[in-house]
């Protein structure tokens, strides 16, 4: 599979959408039971991998195509393309059907970079109120997945819709407008296995997961640059304390994650990915790096997972790939 050249090359490839979705021709699976899961991290028995990708070959074989754009419009071109690809990636959610119900929730103007420690987020400096889990979820004893920095919520909504009976999903996000829209979508989709909360994970994660009646089996931290989906990378050393993955949060994950539970971290910023990797690698007695999915090696020589194991890409991942960026992923299993 070919990837688009970086913007710096001043030539943007024409992109064609194959429209393949999860068709059989583009599915790589190690079957274990008759039950099918859209993600190896959601399969309660073992890992298997489904690959979703764009056809970037530029051939003439069907699908939808974009025209090449002038160099001066490359940045806006990538943004426009990523918006359209995102709509296609999440088409089965039919979220556009709800824009007319509440037009203000269709497209939100949200600051991409925020400081969770600023006074404007004073409400988030105290633990969030613990919800009535039995009122939030149809079955509050199901295993729980927590997505730290859930952003727009589409990623978690897709998982909740496609795995309605196997797991509950909790999204934590510090941009309140995004949480309000995500909860609006949950209500309109009539999903009873997913909930979004306006909360600072560094402050609220411990109390929330400790109060949940069922087991915590999966934590995802999908940190990216110029993020729309998750918390900011905060490059300056003096701002590293703003990063979402701090030692107290890692300790809380280690304490509350069930044995055999999974942590999935991802970033298109190498520095941030290395920081997250080091924090889990420093606890080898608790977390084991997963480098094999099913019976196939899944990592490169440096231990980065080669393919997205979730069955769906985040919005930022789509945008980053169109820019030619690399995604750095690691998977850990709690062994102690």
TrEMBL record:
GO molecular function ontology, one term from the record: tRNA (guanine(46)-N7)-methyltransferase activity
Claim: Transferase is one of the keywords in the record: yes
One GO CC term on file: tRNA methyltransferase complex
Domain of life from the UniProt record: Eukaryota
EC assignment: 2.1.1.33
Record field: catalytic activity: guanosine(46) in tRNA + S-adenosyl-L-methionine = N(7)-methylguanosine(46) in tRNA + S-adenosyl-L-homocysteine
CDD domains: AdoMet_MTases (cd02440)
Pfam (any one): Methyltransf_4
NAD in keyword set: no
Keywords noted in UniProt: Methyltransferase, S-adenosyl-L-methionine, Transferase, tRNA processing
PANTHER family: 3-DEOXY-D-MANNO-OCTULOSONIC-ACID TRANSFERASE/TRNA GUANINE-N 7 - -METHYLTRANSFERASE, TRNA (GUANINE-N(7)-)-METHYLTRANSFERASE
Protein name per the record: tRNA (guanine(46)-N(7))-methyltransferase
Source organism of the structure: Zingiber officinale (Ginger)
Lineage: Eukaryota, Viridiplantae, Streptophyta, Embryophyta, Tracheophyta
């Amino acid at each position: 599979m070919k990837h688009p050249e970086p913007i710096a090359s001043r030539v943007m490839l024409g992109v064609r959408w194959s429209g393949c979705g999860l068709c059989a021709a583009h599915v790589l699976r190690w079957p274990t039971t008759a039950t099918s899961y859209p993600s190896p991290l959601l399969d309660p028995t073992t890992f298997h991998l489904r690959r979703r990708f764009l056809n970037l070959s530029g051939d003439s074989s069907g699908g939808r195509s974009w025209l090449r754009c002038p160099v001066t419009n490359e940045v806006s071109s990538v943004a426009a393309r990523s918006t359209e690809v995102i709509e296609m990636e999440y088409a089965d959610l039919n979220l556009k059907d709800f824009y007319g119900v509440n037009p203000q929730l269709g497209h939100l103007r949200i600051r991409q970079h925020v400081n969770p420690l600023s006074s404007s987020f004073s409400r988030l400096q105290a633990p969030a109120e613990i919800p009535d889990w039995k009122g939030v979820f149809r079955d509050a004893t199901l295993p729980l997945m927590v997505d730290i920095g859930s952003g727009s919520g589409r990623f978690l909504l897709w998982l909740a819709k496609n795995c309605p009976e196997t797991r509950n999903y909790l999204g934590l996000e510090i941009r309140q407008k995004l949480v309000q829209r995500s909860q609006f979508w949950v209500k309109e989709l009539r999903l009873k296995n997913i909930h979004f909360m306006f909360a600072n994970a560094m402050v609220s994660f411990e109390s929330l997961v400790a109060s949940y009646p069922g087991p915590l089996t999966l934590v995802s931290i999908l940190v990216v640059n110029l993020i729309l989906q998750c918390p900011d990378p905060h490059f300056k050393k003096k701002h590293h304390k703003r990063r979402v993955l701090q030692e107290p949060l890692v300790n809380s994950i280690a304490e509350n994650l069930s044995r055999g539970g999974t942590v999935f971290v991802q970033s298109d910023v190498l520095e941030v990915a290395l920081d997250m990797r080091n924090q889990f690698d420093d606890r080898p007695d608790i977390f084991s790096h997963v480098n094999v999915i099913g019976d196939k090696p899944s990592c490169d020589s440096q231990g980065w997972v080669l393919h997205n194991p979730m069955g769906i890409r985040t919005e930022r991942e789509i945008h980053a790939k169109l820019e030619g960026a690399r995604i750095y992923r690691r998977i850990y299993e709690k062994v102690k």
